[in-house]
Amino acid sequence: MVKSIFFFAIRLLIWISGLFLLHILVLHLIGKPLFENFIFTSYIFNFTITIIFFSFLLISSTFNDISLGWVFFITSGLKFLAFFMIIYPFFNLDNIIHKIELLNFFIPYTICLTIEIRQLSKILNSA
Questions:
Q1: With contact defined as beta carbons under 8 Å apart, do 65 and 124 qualify?
Q2: How far apart are CA 91 and CA 95, in angstroms?
Q3: Mind listing the pLDDT tens digit for each residue in 74-86?
Q4: What is the pTM of this model?
Q5: Cβ within 8 Å of residue 57, ≥6 positions away
């Protein structure tokens, strides 16, 4: 199990790093500020929370894989709760939430979620 979590973390780090570099490149090409709007914070947050919840889901799958779907939905809800408690206040400092700030959060969120779902399905299908 620790091995699965480790390899997932490495795979996620590679994907999220590549996406971050691509995101920075696109921001540069369209003339937007590169490291403003909490882009780095959003990527770190999504990476960290994905590792934590993936580990939790993997551990809970060893106890009761029948309810894993419900656990997944609960962890997804907790991710959004964590977003609203941790990241959203930064976005709302100027009382305006810009589209770029939302993209800076939801781009890494989407890739992290996709990788998490693919890895969980691979692990569960092999069991």
A1: yes
A2: 8
A3: 988 998 899 889 8
A4: 0.85
A5: 68, 71, 72, 75, 116, 120
